[in-house]
Amino acid sequence: MPDLPLGDLLELDRRHVWHPYGPMPGRQEPLVVESASGVRLRLADGSGELIDGMSSWWSAIHGYNHPVLNEAVRGQLGRMSHVMFGGLTHEPAVALAKRLVDISPEGLEHVFLTDSGSVSVEVAVKMCLQHWRSLGRPEKRRMLTWRGGYHGDTWQPMSVCDPKGGMHELWQGALPVQVFADAPPAAYEEAYADHLRELIERHAGELAAVIVEPVVQGAGGMRFHSPAYLRVLREACDAHDVLLVFDEIATGFGRTGALFAADHAGVTPDVMCVGKAMTGGYLTMAATLCTSRVADGISRGEVPVLAHGPTFMGNPLAAAVAGASIDLLLGQDWPTEVKRIETGLREGLAEAEALPGVREVRVLGAIGVVQLEHPVDMEAATRAAVREGVWLRPFRDLIYTMPPFITGDDDVAQVARAVCAAAREG
């Protein structure tokens, strides 16, 4: 299709393109991005560029059009763009799996490559259910999680998202009914730890696993909690023969200041999901890692295979760029860069604490959050950020940023100003 006039493109978009969490036909006119480089998105209407304060939903940690990642894709494209993973294998996928095993918490030895974060959670739940079924305990088929969580938009992930006030409340009555603990407090409280222990003990006979987002709850509310709760969960799960799953799709690859959020607690889960930043935002790919205990349990069953196999599983292009992205991250002093961004966000968002209507400001690693006392006016808040030259995507009562790790100090300050402007007008 030849280049379309901007007006025609937007009209076709409105009629035919269903955007995330949007109606059809569309009611809000999106900004059209012509190209992207570094941390900037160039707009097609000629109005200029915006700093991407979202890392394209937390994935583009190295920014855009990065020469190392571009070359990884080009090099792999010259060999093969895809080959089925059933009965075949290839170096990019094997090398990526080994790399993930090497850098993840000790004990995670096996890697199932999936095509999105939500599917990696589906696979994690399936692993846990099949593990117990294979061991002759099919009654262990429920999941326990805490409120305020978000794990994706496919079926099993929706069932472990917060059932009240979340995006998936519509599906109550159809989804599997899981066990929910109260939302975790920010600081460690022994009474809350006892609450977790009691729930796990009470439901142990029917629980396949506990699944949580470690340290940071993402799209469920951008809340932070003490890493000590992860140790409580590990100890309680071990005591009552329950598996433990960490959803590190949002937190993995340095976002919280540790390579994985589990590292803050020194805990290894039985299953761990990663995605988003794994490919540096270039292609869709995620992974579900598990321990030998989980894999061995599945292999003992009447059906000794994990019955899951996406068409594009292990896609060579995605695996090649994922490996390059991880090498690029680990080949630099990424902790210092994340700490630098954290410092800049703390300084820049301090003024938001005094703004009317602001409930709380919180910063951890390369994450900055302003929580309002009321639902955000998304259109007004987005316009305010765009006027400051920054792209943000507020939701519910939150205006937040997760900028690429390459964002310079001046740009971090500009992002913080945009967050404050959005908080004033949203």
From the structure above, extract its key features.
Aminotrans_3; 7-stranded mixed β-sheet; 36% helix; Aspartate Aminotransferase, domain 1; globular; Aspartate Aminotransferase, domain 2; 426 residues; alpha/beta; 2 domains
Mind telling me the C-alpha Rg? Answer: 22 Å
**Share of residues in helices:** 25-40%
CATH H-tier superfamily of the largest domain = Type I PLP-dependent aspartate aminotransferase-like (Major domain)
**Which stretches are poorly predicted, pLDDT < 50 over at least 5 residues?**
none
> Number of helical segments?
13
How many strands appear in the DSSP assignment? 16
Instruction: Give the strand order, joined by hyphens, for the main sheet.
Output: 4-12-11-10-7-5-6
Proper CATH architecture of the largest domain: 3-Layer(aba) Sandwich
The SSE string, one letter per element, is HEEEHHHEHEHEHEEEHEEEHHHEEHEEH
For the record, the CATH class of the largest domain is Alpha Beta
pLDDT averaged over residues: 95
Shape: globular
- How far apart the termini lie comes to 38 Å
Major beta sheet summary: 7 strands, mixed
Whole-number tally of structural domains: 2
Q: Kindly estimate the percentage of residues that lie in beta strands according to DSSP.
A: 15-25%
What name does CATH use for the topology of the largest domain?
A: Aspartate Aminotransferase, domain 2
EC number: 2.6.1.62
Keywords: Aminotransferase, Biotin biosynthesis, Cytoplasm, Pyridoxal phosphate, S-adenosyl-L-methionine, Transferase
Catalytic activity: (8S)-8-amino-7-oxononanoate + S-adenosyl-L-methionine = S-adenosyl-4-methylsulfanyl-2-oxobutanoate + (7R,8S)-7,8-diammoniononanoate
Protein name: Adenosylmethionine-8-amino-7-oxononanoate aminotransferase
